[in-house]
């Protein structure tokens, strides 16, 4: 099937296997409710997966979800105090306080190396799931970043999705003149500020220079003396062209998505999981799609960011470790991969014979299949501070408090801390 080809070509999986669902044995949970923490964008997926898991195993699951910034702070505090959930969301690689490298180095997450799913981790995901040759996270979804367009609203206004940089800026002007917003920006939600950078960088930085990340690691290049300057300058150009709503820096994530759902904004640059949240606030027949954000006037140069999305680890001090392992077994099964990824328009990281891709992901799948994607930039950054500084300097940049080089120099300083 087409999805199997996508995984093999784009993510490097050697085999996309179907495995049996987890056992119906209700033992192993110790009679305790299993606690599971995730982020808001994956709440619907976790709730549906928890219901299916409970039905299959008889183990009760309590799911909690919170926004990225709150989640990272709260969960680290809980892990330190011994009150963290049994299973929790972990970001791939490095780059933030709840990333695999960080929590495994701190001994906060259990070693999953003896679990069956590890043999099916795609080659491209191993480096961001493993530390010291041991596996600490279970990859559940593949994710992409692009412009989540309200196609129904676009058609009603007589607009088509722009495919070049010049067309994008022109579209922003037309939308503004019509009393609409081209791209809703959640500038008050720190993690959302990075997404436009991540949507532009594959075309401007990592596509033209595939070895850029390795060169940075070797100290041969920097953010401030590279095409990252073009990324930030084009971010500013979008603001100057009226691409964003008034008071974009005062808009939170939920409100930005609501603007797209209601057709007040035509799009918002988001991770694909946000499509589910947008749909919840939209009229029933509204159609959406995730499209690339052009960065040049040559459409053939356009690339998208795509990488491992949701992943879960087991608390090293889990109160219900056996139940936690059963949940990971379910989430990495053929059934679990489909149940989790379907409601949030995501793509199974380990493959699933029963999964049917959301039509809104057609562009992302095509870019994956053609090899025109690059990983999320922070997953191989050397520490969590670089991403936090990225959040801050984008807000400074859009507020006019710093220029592109000044903002990127701050990121370089954080990167140099190793």
Folded structure, characterized:
With 418 residues, the protein is of the alpha/beta class. The protein has 2 domains: 19-140 and 309-352, Periplasmic binding protein-like II (D-Maltodextrin-Binding Protein, domain 2, 3-Layer(aba) Sandwich), CATH 3.40.190.10; 144-306 and 376-415, 3-Layer(aba) Sandwich (D-Maltodextrin-Binding Protein, domain 2). Helix content is 40%, strand content 14%. The chain has 17 helices and 14 strands. It has helices spanning 2-11, 43-57, 68-81, 100-105, 123-126, 151-156, 165-177, 195-206, 212-217, 228-240, 253-261, 274-280, 321-331, 334-341, 362-369, 385-398, 404-415; strands spanning 34-39, 61-66, 87-89, 130-131, 134-135, 138-139, 141-150, 181-183, 265-271, 288-291, 304-308, 311-314, 347-348, 373-374. Strands 7, 8, 9, 10, 11, 13 and 14 form a 7-stranded mixed sheet that branches. It has a 5-stranded mixed sheet with strand order 2-1-3-12-6. It has a two-stranded antiparallel sheet with strand order 4-5. The protein starts with a helix and ends with a helix.
Instruction: Give the fraction of residues assigned to helices.
Output: 40-55%
- The CATH topology of the largest domain: D-Maltodextrin-Binding Protein, domain 2
For the record, give the distance between the C-alpha atoms at the N and C termini, rounded to a whole number.
43 Å
Shape: globular
Structural class call reads: alpha/beta
Total helical elements: 17
What does the oligomeric state look like here? single chain
Q: Write down the Rg.
A: 21 Å
């Amino acid at each position: 099937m087409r999805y199997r080809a996508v995984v093999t070509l784009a993510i490097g999986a050697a085999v996309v296997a179907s495995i049996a669902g987890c056992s119906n044995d209700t033992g192993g949970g110790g009679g305790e409710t299993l606690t599971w923490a995730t982020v808001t964008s994956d709440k619907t997926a976790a709730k549906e997966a928890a219901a299916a898991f409970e039905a299959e195993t008889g183990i009760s699951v309590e799911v909690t979800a919170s926004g990225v910034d709150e989640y990272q702070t709260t969960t680290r505090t809980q892990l330190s105090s011994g009150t963290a959930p049994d299973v929790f969301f972990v970001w791939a690689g490095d780059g933030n306080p709840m990333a695999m490298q960080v929590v495994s180095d701190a001994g906060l997450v259990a070693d999953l190396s003896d679990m069956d799913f590890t043999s099916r981790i795609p080659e491209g995901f191993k480096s961001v799931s493993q530390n010291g040759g041991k596996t600490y996270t279970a990859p559940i979804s593949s994710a992409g970043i692009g412009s989540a367009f309200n196609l129904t609203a676009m058609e009603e206004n007589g607009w088509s999705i722009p495919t070049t940089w010049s067309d994008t800026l022109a579209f922003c002007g037309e939308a503004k003149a019509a009393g609409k917003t081209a791209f809703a920006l959640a500038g008050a939600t720190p993690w959302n500020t990075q997404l436009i950078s991540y949507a532009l960088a594959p075309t401007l930085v990592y596509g033209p220079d595939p070895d850029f990340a390795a060169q940075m690691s070797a100290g041969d290049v920097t953010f401030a003396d590279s095409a990252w300057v073009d990324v930030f300058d084009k971010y500013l150009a979008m603001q100057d062209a009226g691409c964003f709503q008034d008071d974009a820096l005062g808009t939170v994530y939920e409100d930005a998505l609501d603007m797209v759902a209601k057709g007040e904004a035509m799009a918002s640059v988001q991770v694909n999981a946000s499509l589910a949240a947008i749909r919840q606030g939209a009229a029933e027949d509204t159609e959406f799609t995730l499209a690339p954000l052009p960065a040049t006037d040559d459409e053939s140069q356009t690339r998208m960011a795509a990488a491992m999305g949701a992943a879960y680890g087991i608390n090293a001090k889990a109160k219900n470790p056996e139940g936690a392992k059963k949940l990971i077994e379910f989430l990495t099964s053929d059934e679990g991969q489909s149940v989790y990824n379907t409601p949030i328009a995501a793509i199974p990281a380990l493959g699933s014979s029963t999964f049917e891709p959301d039509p809104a992901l057609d562009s992302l799948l095509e870019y994956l299949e053609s090899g025109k994607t690059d990983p999320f930039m922070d997953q191989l950054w050397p520490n969590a501070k670089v991403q936090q500084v990225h959040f801050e300097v984008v807000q400074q940049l859009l507020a006019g408090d710093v220029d592109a080089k000044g903002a990127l120099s701050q990121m370089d300083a954080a990167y140099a801390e190793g």
